[in-house]
Amino acid sequence: MMLLKALGALGVVAGGTLAGWLARQRVIRRPRDLEDLRAALHMMETEVGYALTPLPSAMEGVGRRVGGTAGDLLTTAGRILGRNPAAGGSAAWRHAVHLVRGSLSLNNADLLIVDQLFAYLGDTGREDQLKHLQLAQSRLLRQEEEARRQQAAYGRLYFYLGFAGGAALALLLW
């Protein structure tokens, strides 16, 4: 009986530690994903401003080059927009976010920046699109800096909090 209690307590502690580790990984991944997204928008700026590539093709091409979460989002949004051009870039982006949501470390504010950008891409003049791309990149840079501060402040905290919460729960259940 005592062995089962000990194994159960160990399982609860392991579960709490795993939950803390997963929260920590999300905090660690967010600045990297924001950096990738910012780099992707810089590539989009080149595609829109100089290569004059149609938006669905530009999104898919940049998405393939960038890879990761940002690449998955752009590739998916480009495919959606290519199949239904009347929907617009913003609707394609939202649908792509919905499809890829489980693997995202980006928060709603990060996604809103790009959502607002895609409302203008493909529907305004080239110069206006370039200005919106640059604005989105600067806003993502601020988000990235904030994410790096959060990573430094909360990265370890989540891990230890998960372990401590699991240990406390195991003691309460003992």
What would you note in describing this structure?
The chain is an all-alpha fold. The protein has one domain (32-155). Helices cover 86% and strands 0% of the residues. It contains 6 helices and no strands. It has helices at 2-51, 55-66, 68-83, 89-100, 108-118, 126-173. It is elongated, with a radius of gyration of 21 Å. The N and C termini lie close together (12 Å). The model has no long low-confidence stretch (mean pLDDT 89).
Name the descriptors:
86% helix, 6 helices, mainly alpha, 174 residues
In short:
The chain contains 6 helices and no strands. The chain is mostly helical.
Name the poorly predicted regions: none
User: What is the average per-residue confidence, as pLDDT, rounded to a whole number?
Assistant: 89
Strand share of the residues? under 5%
Let me know the number of strands.
0
Number of contiguous helices: 6
Radius of gyration: 21 Å
Q: Report the biggest beta sheet as strand number plus sense, adding barrel if it closes.
A: none
The backbone outline, from C-alpha atoms, is elongated
Termini separation comes to: 12 Å
Domains (count): 1
Order of helices and strands: HHHHHH
What structural class do the secondary elements suggest? mainly alpha
The amount of helix comes to: over 70%
